[in-house]
Amino acid sequence: MSDEIIYGKNSVTEALISENREINKIIISKSIHCDNKLNKIKELAREKGIVFQFAGREKFQPYDEFNHQGVIAFVAPIEYMELEDFLEKPHQNSSVVILDGVEDVHNLGAIIRTCVCAGVEAVIIPSRRNVQVNSVVEKISAGAVNHIPIIKVNSLVNAVQKMKESDWWIIATDASAKDNYFDVDYNNMNFAIIMGAEHAGVSKSLLKASDYVVKIPMLKDFNSLNVSNALSAIIFETVRQKLKK
Hints:
The protein is an alpha/beta fold. It has nine helices and eleven strands. Helix 5 runs parallel beside helix 9. It is elongated and about 60 Å long. The protein starts with a strand and ends with a helix.
């Protein structure tokens, strides 16, 4: 497999710390100021025996479209986890986020970062009609993609069915739902929250397969929340309930 890149000081640092990515080489711009973050990258690379080298402007020109901050790591592609392997592990009051048609890399990166902060145990994405994890997503997530399993499946409907057979409860979001997201008791069960894209929402087949369908109530008649913001509201309600318990 060909190398991919991770860029930016935070993303490269998190990849070095997590040990979930095979880093082949790191290049550092000769012209950037050496700060604590850069020293940390060099220290971690030395500890792990990873080659890093200082490079001139010409080495970074192919990546000018990225906000690389003068640091780029060449890595093996991210390894997705199999759903079956995830379900075989023991889970207790665990949460998963399922994304149905999220097409914006910034939304995916922000969602993954939120999931790690909130203790979500995996993010499930479909192999088609959904943005995949790439270097931009990794940068937006501040390296959080290295701290949570990402599961890619061919069919979300089949994935949901397998989860239900393994005693997971499925909670879909829909703007026209009757129940509010904070009316669900998220304790004492393993659950998955399905988030859809802004323009289309969660598909009808997934809504039908869900145990709960919930909404975020709006006080003004305006466009719905950005999907990453909506997920934050819901997932931290589940955290609040766990802490309260």
